[in-house]
Amino acid sequence: MPPFRPPISGGRHERALVAMGAVMLRVSAIHAGYGPVQVLNGLTLEVSEGEVLCLMGRNGAGKTTLLRAIMGLIPLTGGEVMLDGEVISTLPAHEVPKRGVGLVPQGRRLFGDLTVAENLEVGLMTRGRGARVRDHVLTLFPRLRERLSQVSRTLSGGEQQMLAIARALCLEPKVLLLDEPTEGLQPSMIALIRDTVRDLKATGVATILIEQRVDVALSVADRIGFVSAGAVAEVAEAAALTATAPQFQTYVGV
Amino acid sequence: MTDRALLSHLGLLAVLFAAHWLLPAYHHDAVAKVLVLSVYAMGYNIAFGYTGMLSLGHALFFAAGLYGAAMPLTLWGWTGGTALAAGLVAGTAMAAAVGLLALRTRGVSFMIVTLMFAQAFYLTILYLGRWTRGDEGIVIAQPLRQVAGFDLSNGATRYLAALLLFALALLLCLRLVRAPFGRVMVAMRENEERARMLGYNPFTVKLAALTLSGLYSGAAGAAYALMFGYAGASLAGVQYSILPMLWVLLGGAGTVAGPFLGCLLMFYLIDYASALTSATLLVVGVALVALVLFAPKGALGALRERLGKEGRIWLP
Amino acid sequence: MASLTLLEARGLVRHFGGLKAVDGVDFDLAEGEIHALIGPNGAGKTTFVSLLSGRTPVQSGTIRFEGRDITRLPAHVRVRQGIAYTFQITQVFANLTVFDNVALAVQGRGASKRLARETRAALDRVGLGDRADDVAGTLSYGHQRLLEIAMGLALNPRLLILDEPTQGLAIGEIEAFKRLIEGLVPERTVLLIEHNMDVVMDLAHRITVLNFGQVLATGTPEAIRANAAVQAAYLGGQA
Amino acid sequence: MDFGPLLLLAILEGTVTAAVLALTAVGLSLTFGIMRVVNVAHGEFFMLGAVLAWFVSQWFPDAPLLAFLLAMVICPLVVAGVAVLADVLILKRLNYEPEATIVATIGLLYIFQQAALSFFGPNARPVAPPFNFRVQLPWFGYSGYKLFVILAAGVLLLLVWLLIARTKIGLVMRATQIDRTTARAFGINVDRVYAMTFGIGAGLAAIAAVLVVPIQQAHYLMGGDPLLLSFIVVILGGLGTLRGTLIAALLIGLLDGLLSTAFFFPPTFAKIMATLLVALVLVFRPEGLFGRRTA
């Protein structure tokens, strides 16, 4: 979408000068895996402010592992991850979110025994955000405001997904990572999540969205990256693709 | 093809046999005790080292063998041989009974349940002090300690009898772990769910292994009573559940000869420490922490790993 | 193709809390066929085969295998009766040798005399014959997947259930895998969960599509490809 | 004594036992609940607290109240410090792998116990109570200090509950308990939470011991009973649930008081039965008597 891609900004001051389109997250040739099993093989990508990069690929291609690697939850054996000009792949895992990376994990992974309010509180604490952010997030998801004291485990699937997104937004993230947020949801709920991601774009958040549904991907993404065997095999502008594009057949198998 | 594992273990037995004539009296007695306790450790190793059941209650099986032999001998006038058999049966039966209940749990719960059962048995020994003589223990007089015409209170006889028991236990263990059933035991340790999906019932496999472990422990307990003429509640306490774990970890869990090696090293380490301090059990504590931190595979386990393929052949 | 029914499931239900993972599934497996189970992530495929293999207990419904009711049988008994399951996430015994891994599957059938020979035969079949003495954990990922399949084959099952067998395999390995599976029928029956549509379309005689824990469609690859509801489930939008 | 007064006495004694036990067991429950660590050395933290309290009392032989107040501050802090060291130097390096952790804490048990034997000696030593007054009840006088123990334990337990349920630290601890990976993804320093939890758990055992030494003498082997009883309480209450732990502590404490005071029941027999009961609860109702059954 953004035709103009300036070089990476060096620091805060520079960033203020560069408007939309500065590269926010850059993943450079990373290698990572679990024990002897190597999952990511030199994966490279970048995502800019206000951009939605959608990642698609078969199960086992390494999409979720990529998010875990960005979050510092598994160690890299090569390459580096840079957020807004700062290398974050050498930080301890708990420092990464404090730099402004919000995660909506696969399967939501709410703190199930905690209430909605407490789940949001954990998100707010990450970067020391307060009532202003909380209020903003609850304005995005009014359903959650009605259920603040409810134990999150007892929410419906769609509400749980809203909470998972809301919790990540409590960081006021520079980069938002969404891992299959539409999985197992009814169409109306999928539409809501799609709209939310679109709205967030306007606020300048850089988003990486892992998605299995072609229609969702096409309707929100600026670019679509196809992941195969632990690397990004191809990146395409979403506007240039249709649902019958051969890439979907090759990399996703539909 | 020569059976190198059998050779290496027969070599160990030959050394121990030669030691009978070479060792000075003090060490001769000490090694005899180590041999009997090693049988107990081998039993623990079958459950923990090979099958992956972390029990904190094995003293229950050892003590069942101990009292199962000592009480018939002193109270009811059974002969040495029948008392020995009774101890063996008692250890085995106790393990089977505990297993039927405790194996409904796993991991940490299994550990606590076995600990609780052993603790209950320990308290029962104290409670029934009229017959068990509680903390003070049963001292078995020399004339009673005869099996098939051999006087087990005699040092030389005792050493050879202990070695015979040890040899039987060692060779049986070697045979077991290289048999198909040994492979299934290890499969349970490595991944119970995968083993289940190969058609094995984890409960029955583990029950069988635990019962066998009880047989070893009971045999060691019964032999201990006859050879050393004493059965006391302290031998049923939680410390006697922890010691075999320590021996196995030290020598190498999941190796046939590891329990002996660990038992021998630890025996002399504590022996040596007791000359320096009254806090001898400090050695136990430090050894446990050091082992889990720096040598989780134990002596023979580390050696086997270093030797690679050869190690798996020589040290099953 | 054989028309006898090997396995028959009726009204299977399994909910986890509020999640209807499997929600009233009827399913028939013909003897000697290769049957593929597809559907979006979270559609309930793995839960469904877990019900068939006995790893997860059924909440309601019945399963019949070779005419016998096996609904309440524990998993290890079902394995003995001829239902083998290979895991989605590779679960070989990493600290045992390749030989021991497969021998565990063989010896469970009581084939003590021919243990070594049958074990090597199963290894040769997947092309791991020369790796028998290696420790399984040191194999490459693709070889571990093959070992997993060898373990399934060594059980000599009537029905082999494969959960995403080609996940993480290289292109060349996938071709070899397809030939391997084609060689299993019609003596055995194969049920596979698979995301790789090329593999599904090439291999499967019939396909069942699950969505939200229910059967969306069953039919030949051609019929499934043409099915509008299936397209919608994958591509989104209204069915 | 008549039955009525005897029953009252039994209930009082039982409540004192329950109060001390609850403090100790809540410490064990926290470490199990949040870290999933079965701390076999927990009883030794109790013992260390008691032994340290004796040392503190020796500094001010003529001012037992001052010594007591000082011990209430120093002992839990020192013991918590020891625990934090043990966590960072040992447990963390084992990655909290359950079996290795159990073996390591068994090792710690022996190390602490034998260290106490070396520095404190094999004899039991009394510590003077901070104050001596008797509360005159209709039938008999009762130690004012014991009543104070009940009160103090109640206040401390309330503080623990407030910490867990009402503060940000508590929220962080609960989030870590539920899902440590996700907690990390939200900026929670899990290592620090674990060290803190292990320290708080040990500190609670130590503070319970400071309360108990004026009633029961300090001895290097005194850690065994609190460990076993805490295990029993934590298991009956449902592993890792605070409310269940409290209920179970009260139950066990009162039962202990009744059995040992009001009825002439051999205590060993009662212990055997209690131990077997707990084993069977774990076998047939692993979630405990008051725990929530999870699917």
Attribute tags:
heterotetramer; C: 239 residues; alpha/beta; Rossmann fold; four-stranded antiparallel beta sheet; 9 helices; globular; D: 295 residues; mainly alpha; ABC transporter involved in vitamin B12 uptake, BtuC; 11 helices; 2 strands
The amount of beta strand of chain A, in percent, is 25-35%
Q: Which residues of chain B form runs of ≥5 with pLDDT under 50?
A: none
The amount of helix of chain A comes to 25-40%
Structural class of chain A: alpha/beta
Task: Please report the two chains with the greatest interface, counting residues with C-beta closer than 8 angstroms to the partner's C-beta.
Answer: B-D, 39 and 40 residues
N- and C-termini, Cα separation of chain A: 25 Å
**Secondary structure tally: strands of chain A:** 10
The quaternary structure here is: heterotetramer
Number of helical elements of chain A: 9
The major pleated sheet of chain A works out as:
6 strands, mixed
Rg of chain A over CA atoms, rounded to whole Å, is 17 Å
Approximate shape of chain B: globular
Q: Unreliable runs of chain A, pLDDT <50, ≥5 residues?
A: 1-20
Lateral strand order in the biggest sheet of chain A: 6-7-8-3-9-10
Percent in strands of chain B: under 5%
Order of helices and strands of chain B: HHHHHHEEEHHHHEHHHHH
- The helix count of chain B comes to 15
Taking all residues together, what is the mean pLDDT of chain A?
88
- Mean pLDDT, all residues of chain B: 91
What is the helix fraction of residues of chain B, given as a range? over 70%
- Compute the gyration radius of chain B: what is it? 19 Å
